[in-house]
Design a protein that fits this description.
Layout: H1 2-26, E1 34-38, E2 41-46, E3 49-55, E4 60-63, H2 72-80, E5 90-93, H3 98-101, E6 111-115, H4 119-123, H5 131-139, E7 149-152, E8 157-160, E9 163-169, E10 178-182, E11 185-189, E12 193-195, E13 198-200, H6 210-218, E14 227-230, E15 235-236, H7 239-250
Parallel strand pairs: 4-5, 5-6, 6-7, 11-14
Antiparallel strand pairs: 1-2, 2-3, 3-4, 8-9, 9-10, 10-11, 12-13, 14-15
The chain binds zinc ion (ZN).
Zinc ion (ZN) binds near residues 95, 97, 173 and 190.
C-alpha cells in the first residue's frame, strides 16, 4: 500500500514537472533589458514584463509598470534622464495582470489609467479567467490600490503637453485590455506580441477570450501605426508589416472580397 502511495506521488510530481516545463516553453522570450524605441520612448524590462517610459520637458508617463514591486529598473532609467519616481504623472495600464501592474505603488504621485473592464482585476477584487493568469493570481494575490485611478473609455485621448495618446479598446486577453497609440507607436500590452519575425496574439492559455482578442486585432487595421511595442518581447520597427501579414493569414476564408 505504501509503495503504491509512493508510486502515485512520484507520478504526480512527474506530471506536474512536465506540465511546468511545457508552460515554460509557451512564455514569450524577452529581448534586451533596455529598448530605445524613439528618442523620447524607452522600454525597460521591469521584472518579467516591459514598462515603457515616455517623456518631454514637462511630463513623464509610463505605459505599464512591470512585475517588480520595487520598480528598480524603471527608477534607474528615470535617473538616467534626470527624473525622480515622484515625477511620474501617469501610468497607462494595458491590462490588469499582476506582471504589468506590480510596480505601480512605487510611483506615489502618478494617476493610474486603466480601461474600465480591468479596474477590479487591478485591485485584486477579481481573478482573471485565462487558465494561466488565474493560476498565477492564486499564487500571487495582488492588492494594488492606487490612490488616483482614472477609468478609461475607448476613444479617450490622453494628452501630456505634446504627448497625445489614443486609447484603443482590445478586449480578449482580459476583459478590459487596451492599447495606446502615441504617434506611430502602438503599445500593445499582451494582446499582440512580437514572436521572431512575426506578431500575433498570445497563446490561448494566457487569455480570457482568445476569440475576442483575435476580433479586436482585426479591428486594428484602421489604426495608423508602424511600430509595435509589446509587454513581453520588446518592440518591432516593422510592426505594421508583421501585423498586415498576420491579418492576411487570419482573415475569415469565406469573407467577401472588399469592393474594388
Ligand atoms: Zn497579460
Amino acid at each position: 500500500m505504501r509503495r503504491l502511495g509512493i508510486a502515485v506521488g512520484l507520478s504526480l510530481v512527474g506530471v506536474v514537472a512536465a506540465a511546468g516545463l511545457y508552460l515554460w516553453t509557451l512564455l514569450p522570450t524577452p529581448g534586451a533589458a533596455r529598448q530605445q524605441v524613439r528618442d523620447d520612448v524607452v522600454g525597460v524590462l521591469a521584472g518579467r514584463a516591459y514598462a515603457y517610459l515616455i517623456w518631454n520637458a514637462d511630463h513623464v508617463v509610463l505605459v505599464d509598470a512591470g512585475s517588480d514591486p520595487t520598480a528598480a529598473a524603471i527608477v534607474r532609467e528615470l535617473a538616467a534622464i534626470g527624473r525622480r519616481p515622484e515625477q511620474v504623472e501617469a501610468i497607462l495600464v494595458t491590462h490588469g495582470h499582476f506582471d504589468h501592474v506590480s510596480g505601480i505603488p512605487r510611483f506615489v504621485n502618478a494617476r493610474t489609467c486603466v480601461c474600465q473592464g480591468d479596474h477590479q482585476l487591478l485591485r485584486g477584487d477579481r481573478l482573471p479567467s485565462g487558465l494561466l493568469p488565474r493560476l498565477f493570481g492564486h499564487l500571487m494575490p495582488q492588492h494594488i490600490l492606487p490612490p488616483h485611478v482614472q477609468a478609461l473609455l475607448a476613444g479617450t485621448a490622453l494628452t501630456f503637453g505634446d504627448l497625445a495618446f489614443d486609447v484603443i479598446a482590445t478586449p480578449g486577453h482580459t476583459g478590459g485590455s487596451c492599447m495606446y497609440r502615441l504617434r506611430d507607436v502602438l503599445f500593445s500590452g499582451d494582446s499582440l506580441l512580437n514572436t521572431g519575425a512575426e506578431v500575433g496574439p498570445p497563446p490561448w492559455l494566457f487569455s480570457d477570450s482568445p476569440a475576442s482578442n483575435r476580433r479586436a486585432l482585426a479591428r486594428l487595421e484602421a489604426v495608423p501605426f508602424t511600430t509595435i511595442a509589446d509587454g513581453h518581447t520588446g518592440f518591432s520597427a516593422d510592426g505594421r508589416d508583421r501585423y498586415e501579414r498576420w491579418l492576411k493569414a487570419n482573415l475569415e476564408p469565406d469573407a467577401p472580397a472588399p469592393p474594388r
